[in-house]
Amino acid sequence: MINLLSEDIRELEKNYRTNLINSLTGYRALNLLGTTGNNGITNLCIISSVFHLGANPPLVGMVIRPEREHNDTLNNIRATGQYSLNNVLPEWYMQAHQTSASYPSGVSEFDTCH
Q1: Spatial contact of 85 and 35, defined as CB atoms under 8 Å apart
Q2: Rg over CA atoms, the chain
Q3: Which end of the chain is more exposed for a tag (fewer CB within 10 A), N or C?
Q4: What is the domain-level CATH number for residue 58?
């Protein structure tokens, strides 16, 4: 067994640290979260933190990255109250992952990532 302290993890090389932390919880479902703002501009982001909370009433939860100035996904959901959640097929995962890049506000990942 290896014991890692928070300080040890912070000192790891960035890509190694990212892969380590991302793998801790095992396999997770991969989804694309699509939104449209009041301005008609679409937004798409990859999300792997969707979870079932209950069936009666039907409840599904998800965790979205911390609020940032250009978080179009969260802003669009707050503005419209609507979104689509779609499973990522294995042959789409590379394009789906590209939606996690930091695009300027107003740029549609639907268009950029195809």
Answers
A1: no
A2: 16
A3: N
A4: 2.30.110.10
For residues 68 and 62, the answer to whether their CB atoms sit within 8 Å is no
Domain span at 54: 27-113
User: Is the preceding omega at residue 58 within 30 degrees of 0, hence cis?
Assistant: no
How far the first Cα of the chain sits from its last, in Å, is: 43
Tell me whether residue 11 is in a domain.
no
Asked whether residue 53 is assigned to any structural domain, the reply reads yes
Residue-by-residue pLDDT tens, the chain, 114 positions: 778 888 999 999 999 998 888 788 777 789 999 999 999 999 999 998 899 899 899 899 998 877 677 788 888 999 999 999 999 999 988 899 888 888 888 888 888 888
Residue 17 lies in a domain: no
As separate numbers, helices (DSSP H) first and strands (DSSP E) second, the chain gives: 5, 5
28 CA to centre of own chain: 12
Q: How far apart are CA 34 and CA 46, in angstroms?
A: 9
